[in-house]
Write a structure and sequence with these properties.
Elements (H helix, E strand, L loop, with lengths): L13 H10 L1 H21 L3 E11 L2 H7 L3 H19 L2 H9 L5 E6 L4 E4 L5 E5 L10 E6 L4 E6 L5 E6 L3 E3 L4 E6 L6 E6 L2 H11 E7 L3 E10 L2 H59 L6 H35 L18 H21 L7 H46 L4 H35 L5 E5 L7 E3 L3 H26 L6 H7 L4 E6 L8 H4 L4 H13 L10 E6 L6 H13 L5 E5 L7 H5 L7 H5 L5 H4 L1 E2 L5 E4 L8 H5 L2 H13 L2 E5 L8 H6 L4 E7 L7 H10 L6 E8 L8 H4 L30 H12 L1
Parallel strand pairs: 15-22, 16-20, 16-21, 17-19, 17-20, 21-22
Antiparallel strand pairs: 1-12, 1-13, 1-14, 2-3, 2-10, 4-9, 5-6, 5-10, 6-7, 8-9, 11-12, 18-19
Helix pairs in contact: 1-25, 2-12, 5-6, 5-7, 7-11, 8-10, 8-11, 9-10, 15-16
Length: 798
């Protein structure tokens, strides 16, 4: 069955957490100050980056645009693919390395001020000239401290241990360096430089580059942005990158044209000898036979012969190109500069697409291979894709070769048929047609090649880049990208509030000790007879030593509330217990007995903690006779009663520690003692052992009229309420009430109701009933702080 003492809340108690945060305000102040300090340092000393921007435009070909305008979806997909390809080129390592090779970025200069350091470029006060043929320690920082306009101190630390005075213009040489420092101008006293790896630089600037595209009808505008600490370097790199990108595209076009011209020249050189031989044969025939007119039949056969020879010439040229392409691909050469199929009028879209895909994969492989090892998974994947695509491409070439051979065979059959017709002509006419046929074949092929070479030459001469610079990066247009100072301060403020709040909430969540009134209310419905604040006096009997203190007043309220627990003159015995040692049980027992005695009541304080007696030490009396000796019959009642220096207060000490305390407490002598005490005293206050450790308290509780259970703030575990509730429900302790001990004002979150206790659980009357009377227990010499006053205001508003 569910525990009737557990109460689950459906809502969050915000006031509790407000009190929690206010009582720990100093942690919030500390973390906010630290966070704001970091934010200030970041705002003040973080390097400022500059962003340079340039735009280039990719222009569509006019012819393609007119055709593709009829197929907008195809045109859109084509533009998307082209844009992806161009973006990949702009972000490629190859282009970045070409750009770095044209720049003098391989020496990084830094100027040191009193607080900050600044990267320098053309405005550097020193210039380094190093020997590229000599070994240089890449990335090692070398420090230059100017001593005079002609001298400087050279320092290379971090295990190198070089400290030397040098002259400007004097060459420094060792096994790892060979350089000369020149003085340009002087602004600072200390500088440093590093010789950098161009490969590393290329990769760094690749990461700094961002590419954005804006598609338009006539082309695509690409915006390039680079961030760098030095604005001049950002502008220089971006403009050089744009120029290299345009030059790279133009160079590729020209290289393709050069390869085409070279291939055609090779074919021309092969055919020109054959053409010359046929020319000499024709001239010799005319000299020997004279001019022979062809018959009508011969003219028809000759015209047909020329037509089919023209077709065969083109097919043979196509066949030679396919063989060239087959060898090129088999040799695993880079297809980015291969002769395009259009030079021989090949319109196979699959073949063209495969060549383009292969070129893209080679470009991607080239880009990755500069930054990855050979066993890199991405590189292995690209190699696998290239291998598969190469096989597809070779299959396509073989298919085209087969089709070309078939076409050549068909043309040869027609030529064979025409040759048969020619054999029926006269001998001289046959001989003339045979010579003219050979001449015509070679001449047509030669003329065809000359036309193609002229076309390739014209194409090369008319090659222009597919892109052009629309806006260059300019220093006067560069944008500083500084940190958002206001945002940093807001973030710091948030962090300063968030971190302690989370820590406090976690501590509160995992805390298993009693800290607030809600911890009591959630775990039990046992009445609370009162609360005690923290006593700063350190006295054993503060109610006697400081009778007018607020702490003594809290005991008076408990004394008053006892009147509503004990009914009739026969109810006089009150036992005080707790769960474990350290919760203030004995301390409260002594002071409660004293405060009752101070009201002119005759009180007997009984020490029934027979295992660890303490009361005799507090009052500095003997312990040779006491409860233990009475229970075994060695002493009478009057012999163990000791009057104390507090008027009306008497003590029955525990006596010597017996070997069997529980058995003694079960004898009839205990009841005899209590009956005698009731006749002679107004109140009997019993100090018992902790109830969770031994059964003594339960044995004593059978004879008591009321029981007070002590729980201590930030000491007693919440788990003990299971046991307390069991004692309460099974009535093993009569008139059980709780007393909350050691409440500190700075931690008294939610204890408003304790101070106004009116014994509202089932009685409805008593001290402070229905007033919600509140009294804070604190050191009267300490004034309330602003945050304590704020907490009191929240309580009053609640």
């Amino acid at each position: 069955s569910p525990n009737p003492f557990l109460y689950q809340e459906d809502t969050i108690d915000f006031r509790k957490y407000i009190f929690l945060f206010l009582s720990n305000w100093y942690w919030f102040i500390l973390t906010i100050l630290i966070a704001l300090g970091f934010a200030y340092y970041k705002n003040r000393y973080s390097p400022i980056f500059f962003q340079a921007a340039a735009t280039i435009i990719l222009e569509d070909g006019e012819g393609q645009q007119d055709v593709l305008m009829q197929f907008r979806s195809i045109r859109y997909l084509r533009k998307q693919m082209e844009l992806q390809n161009e973006t990949a080129k702009l972000l490629s390592y190859r282009l970045a390395r070409r750009t770095i090779n044209r720049l003098d970025f391989d020496v990084a200069y830094t100027a040191y001020g009193r607080i900050v350091e600044r990267k320098m470029y053309h405005d550097a006060a020193i210039r380094i000239q190093f020997d590229t043929a000599h070994k240089q320690w890449i990335g090692k920082e070398v420090f230059i401290t100017e001593l005079s306009p002609s001298e400087y101190r050279l320092e290379i630390d971090q295990g190198y241990n070089v400290n030397k005075v040098m002259q400007y213009g004097e060459e420094y040489v060792d096994s790892n360096f060979k350089f000369t420092v020149f003085r340009e101008k002087s602004r600072h006293k200390k500088y440093s430089f590093q010789i950098l790896d161009r490969n590393v630089l290329a990769n760094q600037y690749r990461k700094k580059l961002t590419v954005d595209a804006d598609e338009r009808e006539t082309g695509t505008v690409i915006t390039l942005k680079v961030k760098d600490e030095n604005p001049e370097q950002a502008v220089t790199y971006l403009n050089t990158l744009c120029a290299e990108y345009i030059n790279y595209g133009l160079e590729r076009k020209n290289q393709i044209a050069d390869n085409t011209i070279r291939f055609i020249d090779e074919q021309i050189n092969q055919i020109i000898d054959s053409l010359r031989r046929t020319e000499r044969a024709m001239l010799s025939f005319q000299l020997n036979k004279g001019v022979i007119d062809l018959t009508r039949q011969g003219e028809i056969a000759f015209d047909r012969l020329k037509m089919y020879h023209q077709q065969k010439t083109e097919l043979i040229f196509k066949q030679k190109y396919l063989l060239y392409l087959q060898e090129y691909i088999r040799d695993r050469k880079d297809p980015q500069t291969v002769i395009t199929p259009s030079i021989v009028n090949i319109s196979d879209q699959l073949l063209i697409s495969l060549i383009n895909q292969m070129a893209e994969l080679y470009a991607e492989k080239d880009d990755i291979s500069h930054t990855a090892r050979k066993d890199n998974p991405s590189l292995e994947l690209i190699n696998s894709r290239i291998s598969g695509l190469r096989n597809q491409l070779l299959e396509s070439i073989n298919s085209n070769l087969k089709n070309t051979k078939i076409s050549i065979s068909q043309v040869d059959e027609e030529l064979s048929s025409i040759t048969s017709e020619i054999r029926e002509l006269p001998i001289n006419e046959q001989e003339k047609l045979n010579i003219e046929r050979k001449y015509d074949i070679n001449n047509k092929f030669y003329t065809f090649l000359l036309e193609k070479r002229a076309e390739a030459g014209i194409q090369k001469s008319s090659n222009i880049a597919d892109s052009r610079i629309l806006d260059e990066a300019r220093l006067d247009n560069i944008q500083p990208i500084s940190t958002n100072k206001s945002l940093n301060l807001l973030i710091a403020l948030f962090i300063g509030l968030f971190i302690p709040a989370v820590i406090l909430l976690l501590i509160d969540y995992f805390n298993n000790r009693i800290t607030t009134r809600e911890d009591i209310d959630k775990n039990t419905s046992i009445p609370v007879i009162g609360t005690l604040g923290h006593d700063y006096s350190g006295a054993e009997l503060p109610v006697h030593d400081n009778p007018k203190s607020p702490f003594t007043e809290s005991f008076r309220r408990i004394r008053t509330n006892l009147q509503y627990i004990l009914h009739g003159n026969d109810q006089k015995i009150i036992m005080i217990t707790s769960t474990i040692s350290g919760e203030g049980k004995t301390y409260i027992t002594v002071n409660l007995a004293s405060i009752i005695a101070m009201s002119n009541k005759k009180v007997l304080l009984v020490g029934m903690d027979l295992r660890r007696p303490k009361l005799h030490r507090i009052f500095n009396v003997g312990n040779h006779a006491g409860i233990s000796t009475f229970l075994i019959g060695n002493n009478s009642f009057d012999e163990i009663i000791v009057p104390l220096n507090v008027p009306n207060l008497f003590l029955a000490p525990a006596g010597p520690v017996p070997p069997n305390p529980a058995e003694l407490l079960e004898t009839d002598k205990l009841l005899e003692f209590l009956e005698t005490a009731k006749k002679k005293f107004d109140y009997i206050i019993i100090d018992t052992p902790p109830v969770a450790l031994v059964t003594d308290a339960l044995l004593i509780g059978e004879h008591c009229d009321a029981s007070i259970f002590i729980v201590r703030q930030k000491y007693t575990h919440k788990d003990v309420f299971d046991m307390i509730n069991m004692l309460y429900t099974q009535k093993k302790l009569k008139n059980l009430n709780l007393l909350i001990n050691d409440i500190k004002v700075s931690q008294a979150m939610g204890y408003k109701y304790y101070y106004g206790y009116g014994y509202s659980y089932g009685y409805g009357y008593g001290y402070g009933y229905q007033y919600k009377y509140s009294y804070d227990y604190f050191n009267t010499e300490k004034e309330l702080s602003f945050f304590d006053r704020a907490k009191r205001w929240f309580r009053s508003e609640g």
